[in-house]
Write a structure and sequence with these properties.
By secondary structure, this protein is mostly helical. It contains seven helices and no strands. Helix 2 crosses helix 3. This is Peptidase_M13 domain-containing protein.
Amino acid sequence: MSMVGQIIGHEIGHAFDPQNSQYDSDFNQVNWLNSEDLREYGNRQKCLIDQYDNHDDPSFGRNLKGTTTVIENVADMLGIKTAWMAYKDIKGVQPSIIGFEDYSPDKLFFHLRALTWCSSYDTHALSRQLKAVHGVKNFRVNGIHSNMKEFAEAFQCPIGSPMNPKKKCTLF
């Protein structure tokens, strides 16, 4: 559920990214948000931009540019939130998995999403990463998960820790 739901939610989330949110259902360029909502949503997107700019990546340090990745970061954030809501809407008790009885289903949900981006460190040049529209993989996990109170609750992360910062970016 986590993987498929996150991908579907990510792609639907593109309707709300800074570029595609400027179009209506007939793909006419219009602002369908009123000026106050548009300003507030811009501020919320700016939070993600600033968070990515300040992300300390193992391969690139704090040299990333959130303005180049905000479209994908918005979609990542909406994708995981959509998948989480669908997962929590499932009725009944979630069975445990043999060998993972000590993990709650909520923890497994986040582990499965993290495994999607599991890889070695990026080895390409910083100049290439600065042009990339997708964020670095560890931000797509740690950066996005750190904005979710649900993650912090599942893993009991103390407030103010890297995975449960006091200031979280939210879109809706």
